[in-house]
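Entry, Tuesday afternoon. Goal for today is a structural model of the target with adenosine-5'-triphosphate bound, before we commit to ordering more compound. Inputs were pasted exactly as handed over by J.K., no edits. I checked the ligand SMILES twice against the vendor sheet because last time a stereocentre got dropped in transcription.
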Amino acid sequence: MTNYVIEVEGVTKSYGGVVANQSISMKVPDGKITGLIGPNGSGKTTLFNSIVGYHPIDEGSIKFKGQEISSLRVPQIARLGLLRTFQQTRIYSNMNCIENMLISVPHRKMGFADMFGEREDKATMEEVERLLDFVGLYEKRRLRSGDLSFGQQKLLEFAMALMNKPEVLLLDEPTAGINPTLINGLIDRLRRANEEFGITLFVIEHNMRVIMNMAESIYCLAHGEMLAHGSPDEIQNDQRVIDAYLGAH
Amino acid sequence: MNKNFSFKLHFPILVFGIAAPFLFPGLQLQFATLWVMVLFALTWDIMGGQMGYNSLGNIFFFGVGMYTSVLFQVGQFAEIGAYTAAHGGDSFTFTNAEYYQGLVIGIIMSGVVAAITAALLGWTVFGLRGPYFAIGTLGMAIAAGELMGTWEWVGAGSGISVPVFPGSAYARSLLFYFLCFGAAVLTFVAVQWIYKTRFGLAVNAIRDDEEKAEAMGIHTLRYKTVAWSISAFFVGISGALFGNITGIIEPLEVAFPTVTFGIFMVAMTLLGGKGTLWGPVLGAILFHTLKEVTWTYFLGWQWVALGVLIIVNVVFFQQGIMGWLMEKFPEKFGIVVENKEATR
Ligand SMILES: Nc1ncnc2c1ncn2[C@@H]1O[C@H](COP(=O)(O)OP(=O)(O)OP(=O)(O)O)[C@@H](O)[C@H]1O
Ligand SMILES: [Mg+2]
């Protein structure tokens, strides 16, 4: 029996008159890589925002490991181990890479006294250096992160997410703006994050080669509604998906 | 921060701080004020520089500390209402023991009450961001001054006087000089320590991108509240000391001086370089020295001089002294590309 870490049930979210998500239901299986595709403005980022508690939803239910989380706030959900990256990369730009990583440690068990706790203990520093090495930023680690290139900032954001040891990671277009050779490296790293660290991935992606390669199952949104769900093959050959998104080849 | 650089500054400042009241006996209270300015800038920077919350109302805690202290200094031994009705000091006498017990408890409580007030207010003002936070906190400080001015029990607009020091004027100056110096040193040590812990990183993260910090699970409200409380704690203590130096606590000019001390806090920090450890210290020393010099030699032009300084600072020199040094000599601050061979 498959275990689902995220269960979204009949979620609706509208901005004023715009219905960005219309009774969406979907599930993310534990330990797998799941994809989310759809045309621009189809409501993918909105769905991510709903899941992580960024805004209240109008209707429906969102469960993380069986627990209803639709009324929790962003930091609370993050501390449960459900993390997201942003479509517009977000890092702490005036801090260097090491500092960005150090403050990204899990905050799950932090009590009041931990606010003034040691931040650079040996184990944490080793983890920081290992992960910066993993994304190829080791040499730049003392530079101000805001001075890194766009792609490097994306890699840093990904490393920060790994530093947080999430159970589930929602990635909003991880390969957007990254050059083709680096994309291959990134796919490889995402896979390894999934296989070696056991992190469940839920990925929004416009690059079909990437998502078809990585994901075991894919959801497709269009006009705020769930259009289709299936394996990469099924999605690629689904006439509705071709019409709405992929286009005829 | 470069260790060498820190030490080069620590030492002469400590020596100067201890020697100054004996070298310049006529200027003890001016120097006491200098240390209060250093404390102001350091505490403002916790919020404004390190955390990115530009409060214009931190002077509020100065007044809170000042009133708290005097109420504890008097209230332990006399009925406050009767004391203020009789216009304080002269008609009530305190024994030496009463005076010093009152002073110690007053100073401690001023910090504690200011910190608790900050924590309680934090729940409401931290809903405000950017300019709204600045104006909201400013409004709070102004309102506090006006409210205290209508409260008869604490002397209303005519104020309340602090217990009279039981000794010579020289001993009084010396005592309060060293209390102010000690408070500034304590503030510096505390601030230096917290920035080295996880706290420093967390408030910097909030400054750079609070939404990201929330999305990463950081207890943002907890950090913000504690940052403000720490800031308020030390400002509260400085209020207690300054009230005792002034002698009479009047709400608008002495306890809640929003347009002078309240603005100086910000100006001094910007001058020295916000978001750095030493910037506020250097900024405060420079600003206060300039202010005292213009007050002495260019009376009538002093506000113009300070205004020009502030304008030059924010228009041409936004990064401040420390920020400029960091741009000029990044390697000295550890901003370098290092490959593995060199370090492993
Ligand atoms: N904060 C907001 N306020 C108002 N409308 C919004 C807001 N965020 C999204 N929308 C609207 O909701 C719809 C869905 O937007 P969303 O960002 O979820 O799309 P998306 O699928 O992520 O698109 P893309 O592929 O371009 O990132 C769009 O019509 C958008 O204009
Ligand atoms: Mg999007």
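DSSP finds 16 helices and two strands in chain B.
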